[in-house]
């Protein structure tokens, strides 16, 4: 079955009790039990809820996993994964990992004596050099944020397997439509479903997908124990978002390709970071491991005033944090996602004061390019 069909026909699309084409929102905290000696499938909504099950089963199929777990946000999903670690464990994480994951590792899980090394994961040798006897987890993001750097997922999975290290990929930027890390040997996929999966900037959610039965049991234990589950209404919103994932991303990606090529030709632009451009250093690798370059790109303008002018004057782009919605979003990493990273550190990472990131929505890309041009002149 082709992926477009799978998004709509995966065995979880119909309510088994009524035949409803939209899975009902089972807005209940608890379930009546007829026989306490034989507990029903659902007994309490933290432990399981039918709307959540439909979403979790759908996501498991779409990522090529065996089970998925839905959380109240992407960070709740990532925190559940980090909760698999024990005191004294060491983690290797991508240098330009999402800021929230960086904060969770350095300011929360560090309290449990979990150590972390941040590494340029685009170079697999650097990952190998960072491995210690107590390294238990490798956390990756490709393309990374905001410079869209590409990491070789298959090579990382092979290296980690040799050292008994669990591999985790934050697949938020791609969605399972464009990249399926489990198929490349990765152990755990995490999503901020707030982004492309929801797709309409109206819901916060997180998903963890695994293939291995033992890892599945451990994630379910954390989900049920710590309790950061996704509520039934938001599960329904994500189920609805999934139905249009392909058409949205196809159109948004076309817009991103148009804008990347247009931006390259503008005098006020110094560089464009987008894996869809042939000159992007990760272009070939990305297209080997993913099904498209996606709808997010970054560009560096000539000076800070131009960057500020664009953030203040664009009318069709919303200047905001987040991405993956039907409306185009422009963000300024130096002042938003990476504001807490010291200036010197940001320069080293290439996240300069002139860097802007855009998530392309469903507007006409020509209108979007004119919006940026009008903001500059
Ligand atoms: N991972 C990535 C790549 C993100 O961009 C974000 C949020 O921006 C998150 C994780 C965290 O997700 P949430 O905001 O849903 O908690």
UniProtKB/TrEMBL annotation:
GO terms for molecular function: cysteine-S-conjugate beta-lyase activity; pyridoxal phosphate binding. Gene3D superfamilies: Aspartate Aminotransferase, domain 1, Type I PLP-dependent aspartate aminotransferase-like (Major domain). GO terms for cellular component: cytoplasm. Coiled coil: none annotated. Its cofactor is pyridoxal 5'-phosphate. The modification N6-(pyridoxal phosphate)lysine is found at residue 195. It is an enzyme of class 4 (lyase). It comes from the Bacteria. The keyword Metal-binding does not apply. Keywords: Amino-acid biosynthesis, Lyase, Methionine biosynthesis, Pyridoxal phosphate. Its EC number is 4.4.1.13. Belongs to the trans-sulfuration enzymes family. PANTHER family: CYSTATHIONINE BETA-LYASE, TRANS-SULFURATION ENZYME FAMILY MEMBER. This is cysteine-S-conjugate beta-lyase. It comes from Caldanaerobius fijiensis DSM 17918.
